[in-house]
Amino acid sequence: MTALEGDGGVVRRADRPGLAPVTYLPGAAPLEEPVRWAIPLESSVDDADGRDVPDEEGDDVEESSAADAEETLTRRLRRSALSEREARTFLAQRGIDPSVVEATIERCTSRGWIDDAVLAEQLLYAGTSRKGQGRRAIAQTLSARGIARDVADAALATLPDDDDERALEYARTKANGLRSYDLETAMRRLMGQLARRGYSGSVASNAARTALTEQRGGGGVQFR
Questions:
Q1: pTM to 2 decimals?
Q2: What pLDDT, on a 0 to 100 scale, did the predictor assign at position 209?
């Protein structure tokens, strides 16, 4: 692997044969872009793993089972990232022996194909920049995805205390769609949208009121 220094830390690029180019996804922090890990393009096992050629039939079966489990998980990881808990559940649901599951998870995490910290950063960015979510909703997402509490807390600690600003920004994008409603109805609907994105009652109320006041102060408002 070759390391390149970037503004948000070390950016990794896959230079070894058989590895997919790194896909750059938004967000090590709300304003930065974390790097998504690279996973194999092929199902072949890297010789660097140091696996011995099996001499016994039992070893051969065990090695085949481990290789099959790794290939199954790798195919799934090519579609989207998984947390350790999600990956473990994914393999267990396919009837793979628990010892093989744990060994497969360990190999994938050691290679960086499963990384809860990176996944938490990506979910944090998606929540703030694409979904307009508040801290509470993001925390719930991290928990639902099986991110460990300490890892989730570390990711959330990088989030600026700007729920008010993000709530208002989101409310402004929705205010025009409520022009045909009377103010009370528009307030109720907009506050509901904000609450579903994890904003507290006071934050949602202030953001909705400000956004609707700005929008309706422009004139041309229709009332029911």
A1: 0.59
A2: 93
9 token code pair: 């830390």
Query: Tokens 């692997």 map to which residue?
Result: 1
Instruction: Find out whether 105 and 88 touch, Cβ atoms under 8 Å.
Output: yes
Give helix then strand counts, H and E, for the chain. 9, 2
User: From the CA atom positions of the chain, what is the Rg in Å?
Assistant: 23
Q: Which residues pair with 40 in a beta bridge?
A: 19
CA distance 34 to 25: 6
pLDDT at 79: 92
Write out the residue range of the structural domain in which residue 207 sits: 163-216
DSSP E strand stretches across 140-223: none
Mapped onto helix, strand or coil, the DSSP state of residue 94 is coil
Residue 40 lies in a domain: no
Helix, strand or coil, per DSSP, at residue 6: strand
Residue 119 lies in a domain: no
Mean pLDDT by 10 residues, the chain (224 residues): 37 40 36 52 43 46 77 93 96 94 94 94 89 87 95 90 85 90 93 89 91 76 40
Instruction: Fill in the DSSP letter of residue 130.
Output: I
pLDDT at 37: 54
Q: What gap in Å lies between CA 181 and CA 219, rounded to an integer?
A: 14
Number of domains in the chain: 1
